[in-house]
Every structure is written in C-alpha cells, then in structure tokens.
User: Which sequence fits this backbone?
C-alpha cells in the first residue's frame, strides 16, 4: 500500500522483537551496509516544521492509493448484498483497559444505528468481536462480516474495502485512519479535545473526513444521535458520491 502510494520512496516493513526485556525493530530486506542511513526521524517529528498550524495543511483529500482491482472486487461483493447504502462500522480498539475504554463509545449506544432498516452494516472491527456480533444478532440486528479478509493485518485490502463502502464509521484507530488517508468517506468518532484536531471541529490531516466529537466522555448518546441524523441526510442526498 505504501509502495503504491509513494512510488519514489523505498518502503521497508519492520519486525518488532522482544529480547532480554528490551524491544527492538529490524527491517526485512534493508542492508545498512549497502544503503547507509544519513538521517532518521520519527514520522511526527516533521509536524512542528511543516504543519505547525491548521492553516499549513493542504486541501489534499487522499494520500494512500488503494488497489483498484480490489476496490472493484469489494464493490461487486457489496452490490450483491442489495441496494441499501453500505456502512462499515467498528467501535473499539484492539488494546483495551479501564482507562482506554472511556474514550470509546460503548457498544450498546450503537443501537440507534443498528436498528435502522435503510442501511446495510458491514463489520470492520478487527480483533475478537464475537460478543458484540452475537449480542446484535440476538436482538435481530445484522452486521455482515466481509469474507476472505483479515481485518487486522490485511491493511492493503482493508483500504480497498473502505474505498468501496458508502461510509466508514468508527473511532480514531488504524481502520479509520487508513480509510481517511485514502480519501474515502470517513466519519470518525473522536474524544473530547482530541489533540490531532488541533482545536478544529474537523481533522486537518484528512479534509475528506468528518469528526463527531462528544462534549465529554459521558455524551455518547448525543453523538450517536448526530451520526444518525447525518446518515439520514446522506441517504436522502441527491447523490452520495
């Protein structure tokens, strides 16, 4: 995905290992003897220099380039499910604890969207989502899991899938970031005073993304009501493209 999106850069995958209590990373296929490193930096190190204020962000809707053949594959699969708008959803992070969970909307507040009869819900939740999916099914709510894709590790195919959906909806995690970076319609449920929004009501990094921010960490119902209204407006729009 990165090599396709940034053809002039050499992209190496990293491998993380833990040895003697220390974490190290190696880069498969990279030989420092043949390609000496002149400088190195973490990705965010460039922000203070090149993106110090929201005004410094370009109106550039997409950075990642999905595999168009896979986009077409997923469009055909989604079309086979009927003509209702296809909404990809996910609701939690793979890593959860009592502190992190406060920043994610509880699954039960999603009922307002799950019970809609005018959309087809597509499961994008990576990790173990069996409990939530079984709970939804027990109440008669259908969330369809796409076949033949590892939603955690098949990131290139995941990017193509999000580009085939009418909208991807979820918290700020790997999936919504990939979707937004590819210019797909992405609705991100943020946390209050989310620093990456730089004090803005939107995401400067992703002009095509829409941010839904709660007033506080107890206002998830209000946020979901706004999302429900936004879905209605999207469905009733003359053109969803």
Assistant:
């Amino acid at each position: 995905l990165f090599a396709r999106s940034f053809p002039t850069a050499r992209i190496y995958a990293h491998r993380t290992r833990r040895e003697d209590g220390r974490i190290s990373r190696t880069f498969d296929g990279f030989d420092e003897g043949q390609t000496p490193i002149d400088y190195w930096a973490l990705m965010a190190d460039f922000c203070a220099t090149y993106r110090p204020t929201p005004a410094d962000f370009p109106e550039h809707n997409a950075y990642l380039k999905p595999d168009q053949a896979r986009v077409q594959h997923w469009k055909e699969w989604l079309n086979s499910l009927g003509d209702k708008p296809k909404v990809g959803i996910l609701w939690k992070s793979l890593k959860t604890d009592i502190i992190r969970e406060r920043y994610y909307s509880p699954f039960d507040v999603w009922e307002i969207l799950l019970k809609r009869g005018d959309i087809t819900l597509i499961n994008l939740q990576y990790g173990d989502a069996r409990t939530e999916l079984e709970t939804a099914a027990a109440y008669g709510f259908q969330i369809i899991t796409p076949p033949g894709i590892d939603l955690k590790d098949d990131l290139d195919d995941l990017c193509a899938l999000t580009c085939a959906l009418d909208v991807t909806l979820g918290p700020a995690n790997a999936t919504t970031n990939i979707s937004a970076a590819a210019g797909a319609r992405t609705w991100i449920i943020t946390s209050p005073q989310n620093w990456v929004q730089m004090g803005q009501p939107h995401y400067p990094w992703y002009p095509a993304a829409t941010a839904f921010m709660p007033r506080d960490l107890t206002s998830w119902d209000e946020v979901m009501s706004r999302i429900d209204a936004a879905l209605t407006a999207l469905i009733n729009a003359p053109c969803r493209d």
Notes: The beta strands are 14-19, 22-27, 86-89, 120-123, 143-144, 167-171, 186-189, 209-212.
